[in-house]
Amino acid sequence: MRVYYGAVFGIKAKFLYPEAALVPGEINVNLNPLESFKAAQKQGWAHFAPLETHTTPPAARLVKRAGIRTGDRVLDVACGTGVVATTAARLGARVTGLDLTPELLERARENARIAAVEIEWHEGDVENLPFDDAVFDVVISQYGHIFAPRPDVALAEMLRVLKHGGTIAFSTWPPELFVGRMFALVASYMPPPPPGVSPPTQWGDPTLVRERLGTAVNDILFDRATMLVPALSPEHFRSFTERTAGPMVKLVESLAVSDPSKLAAFRRKYDAIVAEYFEENVVRQDYLITRAKKI
Ligand SMILES: C[S@@+](CC[C@H](N)C(=O)[O-])C[C@H]1O[C@@H](n2cnc3c(N)ncnc32)[C@H](O)[C@@H]1O
To answer: CA-to-CA distance for 32 and 266, rounded, in angstroms?
Structure first.
């Protein structure tokens, strides 16, 4: 049996090696590499809930761009704590939210309860959606489906469950801007992901997005918007993301034990990039919105 040693979000992993005993901190990888990758994603994103304050305004922007109306059947893919789903449901849409991470779905349920809206929640994987073909009027994802390892599989699923003439819309991080640069920096401190995993920031490149959508859609629209994150200093911002953002949480956990001086070097580089986007106690995070109609 082939053995693959690697890490996902800084979690040490032995892939395809069922006989091996796991040491503390390793994830159970008696699975294939992609399943192991997703298991690590689940762990990495479990602390994301406090970030919902910042993804809430962009959620309203995406819902507006998608043109969601009362009565629409909407699927929010990789919904996290349900900020997009709840926003759409408050407009009178019939909403389903799906995410890999149970801790976030728990918060999503609470968000729907507080907002007094009915939403159907599913724990699941965008690469294998548990829905029939062509049932949704809108399939939407905010900084979410990009984390599926295989873009072609995720996109095929999102388009499969969308009605003909329906809208697909998503917000993504361009590689050359703040969040894209952060992902690249974090990735440069980690072992490479398993073969076949595409970087999430590819979804921030309009040329590639157009190519991926191909002939399945028409009426493609691209737009730019900005997520503003308040912070007292670049270091405050980093400290917050070290506790909440999936890739950062695990990288810092792992380096703190294995190589504190490497962690210090990482933090210096991180703070320097943040400083470029930090002004008047706000970190500016520009992103891409894509919207298209399924043919
Ligand atoms: C940056 S968060 C975005 C959450 C939410 N959409 C928002 O805007 O606040 C990324 C989300 O993707 C989810 N995710 C990652 N891989 C996934 C997969 N293969 N299928 C479903 N959800 C996934 C994570 O659990 C996490 O909730």
So the answer is: 30
How far apart CA 99 and CA 144 sit, in angstroms, is: 9
Give ligand 1 pocket residues (Cβ under 6 A): 38, 41, 45, 48, 52, 55, 78-81, 83-84, 99-101, 104, 125-127, 142-144, 147-148
| Residue pLDDT, tens place only, 66-94 | 999 999 999 999 999 999 999 999 999 99
Residue nearest to atom 18 of ligand 1 (CA): 125
CA dist list (Å): 81 to 21, 100, 113, 146, 278: 34, 11, 12, 16, 26
Q: Name the token pair of 255.
A: 């380096």
pLDDT at 289: 98
Q: Which candidate, 48, 74, 52, 49, places its Cα nearest to that of 63? A: 74
E-state strands within the chain: 4-8, 11-15, 73-77, 94-99, 119-123, 136-142, 162-172, 217-230, 278-279, 282-294
Residue with tokens 């704590």: 81
DSSP 58: H
* Amino acid letter for position 235: E
Chain-centre distance of CA 143, in angstroms? 4
* pLDDT tens figures, 115-144: 999 999 999 999 999 999 999 999 999 999
